[in-house]
């Protein structure tokens, strides 16, 4: 029997071990001493290390040591570090999600969807360091996606349009998650907020930037807007809120043109 034929009979055979384990499909090893750990315990220990010391600090040996076991003990539960990373990503997405019935309109739900996505990166900064290797297919990740899609169930959009909107909002939240992570790291390294936002360099830029060389940027530099002069300490939050509202405006415009039977521009 070919590999293709085998996959047709067993649709789960193509799943990487970490993803299979996230769905409870992994086969437990019968080798070694009596099983004294659980996969959730191992994953929780790994997440705690990453939250405290960063993703680079996570290794099978360090996770095992934090639990009082050897690294070889962990391999009886989770086949590799790559599989552990998959399980860690899914675990941090297991957060309480509000019921759709609690929302007055689709904008409010999608707004909170984006904020909840950003908060995951805020709570677990190492999440930004995990490369994207494909679409989310673990249970808690998909639960997140399903929640976002619930806002669009009566929108009249087709399936491709709905998932594109979820990707747009998720990507926006991820970009701000990375920005806030980098801001926190800069502060920890001794930078000041004024250095990060550029406020500390306003006077210098006003001397260096000329109207001839930067005709469109020049007015923003001179007014101080470019470096955030006059903004409060929550400038990143202000920028996120402004951006999400403009994205939602765009979605609303697209929905209106669809309902009127016109073409979105």
UniProtKB/TrEMBL annotation:
Domain of life where this protein originates: Bacteria
GO biological process terms held by the UniProt record: negative regulation of DNA-templated transcription
Keywords: DNA-binding, Transcription, Transcription regulation
Keyword Transcription assigned: yes
Keyword hit for DNA-binding: yes
GO molecular function annotations of the record: DNA-binding transcription factor activity; transcription cis-regulatory region binding
Domain HTH tetR-type: 36-96
DNA-binding region as annotated in the record: 59-78
Pfam families, per the entry: TetR_C_1, TetR_N
PANTHER family: HTH-TYPE TRANSCRIPTIONAL REGULATOR RUTR (PTHR30055), TRANSCRIPTIONAL REGULATORY PROTEIN (PTHR30055:SF151)
Protein's name in the database: AcrR family transcriptional regulator
Species assigned in the record: Paenibacillus phyllosphaerae
Lineage: Bacteria, Bacillati, Bacillota, Bacilli, Bacillales
């Amino acid at each position: 029997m070919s590999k293709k034929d085998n996959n047709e009979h067993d649709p789960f055979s193509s799943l990487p071990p970490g993803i299979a384990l996230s769905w409870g499909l992994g086969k437990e090893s019968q080798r070694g001493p009596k099983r004294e750990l659980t996969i959730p315990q191992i994953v929780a220990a790994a997440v705690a290390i990453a939250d405290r010391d960063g993703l680079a600090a996570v290794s099978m040996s360090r996770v095992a040591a934090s639990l009082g076991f050897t690294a070889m003990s962990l391999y009886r539960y989770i086949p590799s570090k790559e599989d552990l990373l998959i399980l860690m990503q899914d675990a941090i997405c297991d957060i309480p999600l509000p019921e759709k019935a609690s929302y007055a309109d689709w904008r409010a739900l999608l707004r909170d969807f984006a904020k909840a996505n950003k908060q995951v990166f805020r709570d677990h900064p190492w999440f930004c360091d995990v490369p994207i290797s494909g679409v989310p297919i673990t249970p808690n990740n998909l639960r997140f996606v399903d929640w976002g899609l619930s806002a669009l169930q009566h929108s009249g959009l087709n399936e491709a349009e709905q998932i594109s909107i979820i990707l747009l909002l998720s990507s926006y939240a991820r970009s701000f998650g990375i920005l806030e992570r980098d801001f926190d790291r800069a502060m920890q390294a001794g930078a000041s907020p004024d250095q990060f936002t550029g406020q500390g360099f306003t006077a210098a830029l006003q001397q260096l930037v000329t109207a001839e060389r930067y005709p469109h940027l020049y007015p923003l530099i001179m007014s101080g807007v470019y470096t955030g002069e006059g903004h409060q300490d929550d400038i990143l939050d202000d920028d996120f809120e402004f951006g999400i509202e403009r994205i939602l405006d765009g979605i609303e415009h697209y929905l209106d043109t669809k309902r009127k039977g016109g073409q979105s521009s």
